[in-house]
Amino acid sequence: METKLKYRMVGILVLTALAVIFIPMIFSGSEHDRDTYLAEIPKGPGFGQGRRVSVIDLQAEMRARERESAARMPLDKIDQTDYTEQPGQILDQNGLPIGWSLQVASFRDQDNAVKLRASIRLLGHGSYVLRSLTNEGLFFQVLVGPSLDRNALLKVGQQLSAEMDLSVQIVRYRVEDDSNQVGG
Q1: What's the predicted TM-score (pTM) here?
Q2: Between 3.40.50.150, 3.40.50.620, 3.30.70.1070, 3.40.1710.10, what CATH number should domain 99-180 receive?
Protein backbone atom coordinates (compact mmCIF):
# COMPACT_ATOMS: atom_id res chain seq x y z
CA MET A 1 0.00 0.00 0.00
CA GLU A 2 1.02 3.54 -0.49
CA THR A 3 2.14 5.56 2.49
CA LYS A 4 -0.49 8.28 1.90
CA LEU A 5 -3.22 5.67 2.04
CA LYS A 6 -1.76 4.22 5.25
CA TYR A 7 -1.70 7.67 6.87
CA ARG A 8 -5.29 8.29 5.83
CA MET A 9 -6.42 4.96 7.29
CA VAL A 10 -4.64 5.64 10.59
CA GLY A 11 -6.17 9.13 10.68
CA ILE A 12 -9.66 7.76 10.11
CA LEU A 13 -9.20 5.22 12.93
CA VAL A 14 -7.95 7.90 15.35
CA LEU A 15 -10.84 10.25 14.52
CA THR A 16 -13.37 7.43 14.88
CA ALA A 17 -11.95 6.46 18.28
CA LEU A 18 -12.08 10.06 19.47
CA ALA A 19 -15.66 10.40 18.21
CA VAL A 20 -16.68 7.24 20.06
CA ILE A 21 -15.18 8.59 23.27
CA PHE A 22 -16.23 12.24 23.22
CA ILE A 23 -19.60 12.37 21.38
CA PRO A 24 -21.50 10.51 24.16
CA MET A 25 -20.08 13.00 26.68
CA ILE A 26 -21.31 15.93 24.63
CA PHE A 27 -24.86 14.68 24.07
CA SER A 28 -25.60 12.99 27.39
CA GLY A 29 -25.61 16.13 29.52
CA SER A 30 -23.26 17.29 32.23
CA GLU A 31 -21.47 15.01 34.60
CA HIS A 32 -23.26 16.70 37.48
CA ASP A 33 -26.65 15.64 36.05
CA ARG A 34 -25.50 12.04 35.77
CA ASP A 35 -24.24 11.96 39.35
CA THR A 36 -27.33 13.47 40.98
CA TYR A 37 -29.84 10.96 39.61
CA LEU A 38 -31.21 9.02 42.55
CA ALA A 39 -33.87 6.38 42.50
CA GLU A 40 -36.56 6.96 45.08
CA ILE A 41 -37.76 3.71 46.52
CA PRO A 42 -41.16 3.93 48.22
CA LYS A 43 -41.51 2.80 51.77
CA GLY A 44 -42.95 -0.63 52.35
CA PRO A 45 -46.47 -1.13 53.67
CA GLY A 46 -46.76 -0.62 57.38
CA PHE A 47 -47.63 -3.95 58.90
CA GLY A 48 -48.58 -3.76 62.51
CA GLN A 49 -46.03 -5.84 64.31
CA GLY A 50 -47.49 -5.22 67.76
CA ARG A 51 -51.04 -6.46 67.15
CA ARG A 52 -51.65 -10.18 67.35
CA VAL A 53 -54.73 -11.59 65.65
CA SER A 54 -56.02 -15.06 66.30
CA VAL A 55 -57.65 -17.30 63.73
CA ILE A 56 -60.83 -17.49 65.81
CA ASP A 57 -61.17 -13.69 65.79
CA LEU A 58 -60.66 -13.60 62.02
CA GLN A 59 -63.28 -16.31 61.45
CA ALA A 60 -65.80 -14.45 63.61
CA GLU A 61 -65.15 -11.23 61.71
CA MET A 62 -65.55 -13.02 58.36
CA ARG A 63 -68.88 -14.56 59.44
CA ALA A 64 -70.15 -11.14 60.48
CA ARG A 65 -69.16 -9.67 57.11
CA GLU A 66 -70.86 -12.55 55.28
CA ARG A 67 -74.11 -11.94 57.20
CA GLU A 68 -73.98 -8.22 56.32
CA SER A 69 -73.35 -9.04 52.68
CA ALA A 70 -76.13 -11.63 52.57
CA ALA A 71 -78.57 -9.13 54.11
CA ARG A 72 -77.91 -6.72 51.22
CA MET A 73 -78.34 -9.36 48.48
CA PRO A 74 -81.72 -9.62 46.72
CA LEU A 75 -83.77 -12.70 47.50
CA ASP A 76 -83.81 -15.50 44.94
CA LYS A 77 -87.07 -15.85 43.04
CA ILE A 78 -88.07 -19.47 42.74
CA ASP A 79 -90.25 -20.51 39.83
CA GLN A 80 -92.97 -22.81 41.19
CA THR A 81 -94.50 -23.61 37.78
CA ASP A 82 -94.78 -27.31 36.92
CA TYR A 83 -93.46 -27.63 33.40
CA THR A 84 -93.82 -31.41 33.19
CA GLU A 85 -97.46 -31.38 32.09
CA GLN A 86 -98.19 -28.64 29.58
CA PRO A 87 -101.48 -29.11 27.72
CA GLY A 88 -101.28 -29.41 23.96
CA GLN A 89 -97.60 -30.30 23.80
CA ILE A 90 -96.48 -33.20 21.70
CA LEU A 91 -93.12 -34.75 22.50
CA ASP A 92 -90.77 -36.32 19.99
CA GLN A 93 -88.78 -39.54 20.50
CA ASN A 94 -86.19 -37.62 22.56
CA GLY A 95 -88.81 -36.27 24.95
CA LEU A 96 -88.51 -32.73 23.59
CA PRO A 97 -91.55 -30.64 22.68
CA ILE A 98 -92.32 -30.31 18.99
CA GLY A 99 -92.34 -26.76 17.65
CA TRP A 100 -94.28 -25.43 14.69
CA SER A 101 -93.77 -22.65 12.15
CA LEU A 102 -95.91 -21.11 9.44
CA GLN A 103 -94.43 -21.06 5.96
CA VAL A 104 -95.90 -17.98 4.33
CA ALA A 105 -93.85 -17.70 1.13
CA SER A 106 -90.86 -18.95 -0.86
CA PHE A 107 -88.77 -16.66 -3.05
CA ARG A 108 -85.84 -17.10 -5.39
CA ASP A 109 -84.68 -13.58 -4.53
CA GLN A 110 -83.37 -13.04 -1.00
CA ASP A 111 -84.32 -9.35 -0.98
CA ASN A 112 -88.00 -10.17 -1.52
CA ALA A 113 -87.93 -12.65 1.38
CA VAL A 114 -86.25 -10.12 3.68
CA LYS A 115 -88.82 -7.44 2.76
CA LEU A 116 -91.73 -9.77 3.52
CA ARG A 117 -90.10 -10.77 6.82
CA ALA A 118 -89.80 -7.07 7.75
CA SER A 119 -93.45 -6.38 6.95
CA ILE A 120 -94.57 -9.40 9.01
CA ARG A 121 -92.45 -8.18 11.91
CA LEU A 122 -94.11 -4.77 11.66
CA LEU A 123 -97.42 -6.54 12.30
CA GLY A 124 -95.94 -7.88 15.54
CA HIS A 125 -95.19 -11.46 14.57
CA GLY A 126 -91.82 -13.15 14.93
CA SER A 127 -90.53 -14.30 11.56
CA TYR A 128 -87.35 -15.60 9.98
CA VAL A 129 -85.95 -16.53 6.57
CA LEU A 130 -84.40 -19.92 5.78
CA ARG A 131 -82.12 -20.76 2.88
CA SER A 132 -83.43 -23.92 1.21
CA LEU A 133 -81.71 -25.84 -1.60
CA THR A 134 -84.14 -27.89 -3.70
CA ASN A 135 -84.03 -29.70 -7.04
CA GLU A 136 -85.16 -26.46 -8.68
CA GLY A 137 -82.40 -24.35 -7.09
CA LEU A 138 -81.94 -22.08 -4.11
CA PHE A 139 -85.07 -20.71 -2.43
CA PHE A 140 -85.60 -18.39 0.52
CA GLN A 141 -88.53 -19.45 2.71
CA VAL A 142 -90.27 -16.91 4.94
CA LEU A 143 -91.57 -18.51 8.14
CA VAL A 144 -93.49 -17.18 11.14
CA GLY A 145 -92.86 -18.63 14.57
CA PRO A 146 -91.68 -20.93 16.00
CA SER A 147 -94.33 -21.83 18.56
CA LEU A 148 -95.13 -24.88 20.66
CA ASP A 149 -98.86 -24.20 20.39
CA ARG A 150 -100.03 -25.30 16.95
CA ASN A 151 -103.56 -23.90 17.38
CA ALA A 152 -102.31 -20.43 18.29
CA LEU A 153 -100.03 -20.50 15.27
CA LEU A 154 -102.96 -21.46 13.03
CA LYS A 155 -104.86 -18.40 14.30
CA VAL A 156 -101.86 -16.23 13.43
CA GLY A 157 -101.85 -17.83 9.99
CA GLN A 158 -105.51 -16.93 9.48
CA GLN A 159 -104.77 -13.32 10.48
CA LEU A 160 -101.86 -13.13 8.05
CA SER A 161 -103.96 -14.66 5.28
CA ALA A 162 -106.61 -12.00 5.80
CA GLU A 163 -104.28 -9.02 6.25
CA MET A 164 -101.60 -9.76 3.65
CA ASP A 165 -103.37 -12.10 1.21
CA LEU A 166 -100.92 -14.95 1.85
CA SER A 167 -101.54 -18.67 1.72
CA VAL A 168 -99.92 -20.21 4.77
CA GLN A 169 -98.84 -23.75 5.49
CA ILE A 170 -97.92 -25.12 8.91
CA VAL A 171 -94.59 -26.96 9.06
CA ARG A 172 -92.58 -28.54 11.84
CA TYR A 173 -89.85 -26.35 13.31
CA ARG A 174 -86.46 -28.01 13.26
CA VAL A 175 -83.63 -26.55 15.30
CA GLU A 176 -81.05 -27.99 12.91
CA ASP A 177 -82.39 -25.66 10.19
CA ASP A 178 -81.25 -22.62 12.19
CA SER A 179 -77.83 -22.82 10.56
CA ASN A 180 -79.49 -21.88 7.25
CA GLN A 181 -81.17 -18.75 8.60
CA VAL A 182 -80.60 -15.49 6.78
CA GLY A 183 -79.39 -12.85 9.24
CA GLY A 184 -81.49 -9.97 10.45
Answers
A1: 0.50
A2: 3.30.70.1070
